[in-house]
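Here is my example:
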Amino acid sequence: MKHPDVTIISDDDDFPSEMQKSVVSIRKQASNAQAQPCCGYKLHFPQGQQAHTSYPFALHTAFLLTWDYSRRHDGFFLVSYFCTGVAGRDGRCERCDDLCNNKYLQNIMARFTNGIHENATLVYHGISGLIKIVHRKTKAVDLLRLRCCNDLKKLIGKEGAIDVHKQLLMAMSSQRIPCVDQVLRIGFHHGTGIQTMLELIKKAAEGSYHPKGFDEKEDLQALLFLHLGGARVADIAHRIFGMPAVTTIRRHTIIPQILPSPSFPTSHEIECNIATTFKPVCDILKTSLQKILHAVIMFDEISVESCPCWDDKSNKILGVCHEHGQDTSLEFTSEEDLQLLWEELQSGKIHLAHKVRVDARGALPINGLT
């Protein structure tokens, strides 16, 4: 700065007759101490955090914050809009030093120190907080996408199962399937899937599958056909209605079976038949509360149709009289046995029986007598 020259006029006793002008240059000496510039308010972050990722830069777009930010080699600084530029005792001006009392800055420091609420607006987060939110959202989206994919697979599977159930109902309602209840019962008993059960029902409708499971009611119905109409009627019911076959009825019947004698009865056959026929009577006598006086047994003969028949249990030909049955082989092994039996019947060597002997038994209690 250029200083102006100053002119001094004085009176001198030595020179009374003459006034002299003396020009003296007075310059202000510059001070050796220069003023320090204000560096701003230094913002400190917790250990492990950096200003680049922790400071919420986007907050300047949402609120009118009265400072600027800068990153230097020695830290992260905030400079007030009203900074005087001259540092005070603490290395910053009064305006910048007063930023520590700003409520917005205090909230910013509390958030990156103590953490930000997960429901806070995104502008309050720093870059690291935004990265965490992106990772969490991405994980949630992947989880929901995987769950949605699993749900879609389940729905597709259930839709396929519903279609199979519809096909099953259509097959059951559109076709006359014999013993469809038996097919379903056997399938459920074996744990068969709906697809396999549908195939079994289709095979049953085509006649290529015949279920073998029967309950007690069906066995008794088939037994009634056998007793009322004979083996032929029972076989017809088996073919038409899918009821148990004659051999199945005889195998599962609860009625005691009498051993037939193709020729003269043997001692073994007589013993078995006696034990079989008298066992129900003995059971009645044991369980009856009435006192039995005596029992009655009666024998009689009835006429039957003269016709040979084959017994599947003993594999013998029945219907030949006992007197001549011992003279020929009654065991059925081949077609030649039947041809030989027919020839002997034609020749009169043997003949068919036309009568059978039957017996009836009864117990007479004391209070039943008059």
